[in-house]
């Protein structure tokens, strides 16, 4: 069971205490899909690096959170979005297969071991029902937040090419007001509906 969450005024920073997968080397990430009570809207936050891109709150799992990834999910959702809520279920594990960072011959190339692509990150996301939105939170000076319907969130995650977050959103209980788009482990679309969206 997750420890009682105690919000801090300052966000944790740095990667010296981050956890990585022992099998793939992927960075371990946890976060939430924060839904309203009616489950017809989700809160999205602006990316700290790209202000015009909207994502879900998540961040690196640290060594003192290894026993229960929900602790990271609660912490990151507070730090990035100022949300207090109740975790209601664990969503399926998803992977970020975007290009690995590298230089020279490795720049913008996927890396693999024995034909299996190495994910950049392994995501452990949880569905959350939002109970309270704070007016000030650790990253409120550099992030905005907004409520989105499924179709709006789908559009934003598609625009940002965050297929793994869209996969997690599809796995949540949010009311789907348009057809879901499913992504395979290589980031390929499993249906063509996404190509016919007009925003």
The CATH topology, please? Nucleoside Triphosphate Pyrophosphohydrolase
What share of the residues lie within helices?
Answer: 10-25%
What is the correct CATH architecture? Alpha-Beta Complex
- Can you count the helices? 3
- How many domains, in number, for the residues? 1
Helix vs. strand class: alpha+beta
Report the portion of residues in β strands.
25-35%
Q: Note the main sheet.
A: 5 strands, mixed
Could you state the order of secondary-structure elements as H and E? EEEEHEEEEEEHH
Radius of gyration: 17 Å
N- to C-terminal distance: 42 Å
CATH class (first level) name: Alpha Beta
Going by CATH, the homologous superfamily would be Nucleoside Triphosphate Pyrophosphohydrolase
Keywords: Hydrolase, Magnesium, Metal-binding
Organism: Komagataella phaffii (strain GS115 / ATCC 20864) (Yeast)
GO cellular component, one term: cytoplasm
Domain Nudix hydrolase: 25-170
Keywords summarizing the entry:
metal-binding, disordered C terminus, globular, three-stranded antiparallel β-sheet, inositol-5-diphosphate-1,2,3,4,6-pentakisphosphate diphosphatase activity, Nucleoside Triphosphate Pyrophosphohydrolase, five-stranded mixed β-sheet, NUDIX_hydrolase_dom, 199 residues, inositol phosphate phosphatase activity, alpha+beta
Care to describe what's here?
By secondary structure, the protein is an alpha+beta fold. It contains 3 helices and 10 strands, in the order E-E-E-E-H-E-E-E-E-E-E-H-H. A hairpin with a 2-residue loop joins strand 7 and strand 8. The protein has helices at residues 69-81, 150-159, 163-171; strands at 27-35, 42-46, 54-55, 58-60, 83-90, 94-96, 112-113, 116-117, 121-133, 145-148. It has a single domain (27-103, 110-196), classed as Nucleoside Triphosphate Pyrophosphohydrolase, CATH 3.90.79. Helix 2 packs antiparallel against helix 3 (163-171). The longest helix has 13 residues, at 69-81. Strands 1, 4, 5, 6 and 9 form a 5-stranded mixed beta sheet that branches. Strands 3-2-10 form a 3-stranded antiparallel beta sheet. One of its GO terms (molecular function) is endopolyphosphatase activity. It holds the Pfam family NUDIX.
